[in-house]
């Protein structure tokens, strides 16, 4: 059972380049989330989805877009990368109902923007 | 919006007991969770409190007081492998159904010999 898989694990971008981070889960979870983690800042929610075809903004959505065309996948896009987006990005998922208390995280994607 | 406060660092010796506090401000509160994260790793779920009181899971316990908007994580019989960051997170309702978790900034626990 793979759980939550993020690709790529590492990426270096130049300012202004675009890229997409892919999150895939094989647990049939309803909810999916993208967080970024910076030193001393904890985990901050970028965007989330409460089901296939839905997306919503979290606390730091600017500069990012997301899509959830299939239930198992949640994509995070950076249209024009900026150095401020250098961070570690974590995807997470939860089932609905009482299981929504427990997030399962991917291993993280470390992004550096030069 | 939501905000959570927890200490940035705690140091304790192996075998001791340590308590990590978390205070929060939020609306539509569902419950308080705790996650552990080792350096370079992903956060992993430890405990959840939806109701007031104590939840125990092995060496770890978590407490919630909804009236005080306060909770804590208690780690007993500390081991070196417990050195990690610990995050509290509040679960609250969102428009359109579902829920989301907002995390605190984390407490780095250092366990010394």
Give a description of the structure.
The complex is a heterodimer of chains A (114) and B (113). Chain A is mainly beta. Helices cover 0% and strands 50% of the residues of chain A. Chain A has no helices and 11 strands. Chain A has strands at 4-7, 10-13, 19-25, 31-38, 42-49, 56-57, 65-67, 73-78, 87-94, 104-105, 109-113. In chain A, the strands form 2 sheets. In chain A, strands 2, 4, 5, 6, 9, 10 and 11 form a 7-stranded mixed sheet that branches. Chain A has a 4-stranded antiparallel sheet with strand order 1-3-8-7, with no helix packed on it. In chain A, a hairpin with a 5-residue loop joins β7 (65-67) and β8 (73-78). Chain A starts with a strand and ends with a strand. Chain B is mostly beta strands. Chain B has strands at residues 3-5, 9-13, 18-25, 29-37, 44-49, 53-57, 60-65, 70-75, 84-93, 99-103, 107-112. In chain B, the strands form 2 sheets. In chain B, strands 2, 4, 5, 9, 10 and 11 form a 6-stranded mixed sheet that branches. In chain B, strands 1-3-8-7-6 form a 5-stranded antiparallel sheet, with no helix packed on it. In chain B, a hairpin with a 2-residue loop joins β6 (53-57) and β7. Classes of the chains: A mainly beta (114), B mainly beta (113). The interface between A and B is medium-sized, with 28 and 28 residues.
């Amino acid at each position: 059972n793979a759980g939550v898989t993020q690709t790529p694990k590492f990426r270096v971008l130049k300012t202004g380049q675009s890229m997409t981070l892919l999150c895939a889960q094989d647990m049939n979870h309803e909810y999916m989330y993208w967080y970024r983690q910076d030193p001393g800042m904890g985990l901050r929610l970028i965007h989330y989805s409460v089901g296939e075809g839905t997306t919503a903004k979290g606390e730091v959505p600017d500069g990012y877009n997301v899509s959830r065309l299939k239930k198992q996948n949640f994509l995070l896009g950076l249209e024009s990368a900026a150095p401020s987006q250098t961070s570690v990005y974590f995807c997470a998922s939860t089932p609905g109902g009482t299981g929504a208390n427990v997030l399962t995280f991917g291993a993280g994607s470390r992004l550096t923007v030069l | 919006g939501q905000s959570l406060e927890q200490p940035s660092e705690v140091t304790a010796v192996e075998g001791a007991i340590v308590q990590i506090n978390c205070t929060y401000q939020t609306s539509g509160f569902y419950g308080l969770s705790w996650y552990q994260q080792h350096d370079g790793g992903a956060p992993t779920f430890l405990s959840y409190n939806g109701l007031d009181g104590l939840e125990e899971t092995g060496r770890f316990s978590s407490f919630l007081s909804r009236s005080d908007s306060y909770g804590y994580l208690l780690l007993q019989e500390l081991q070196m492998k417990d050195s990690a960051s610990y995050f509290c997170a509040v679960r609250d309702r969102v428009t359109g159904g579902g829920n989301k978790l907002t995390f605190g900034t984390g407490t780095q626990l250092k366990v010394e010999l």
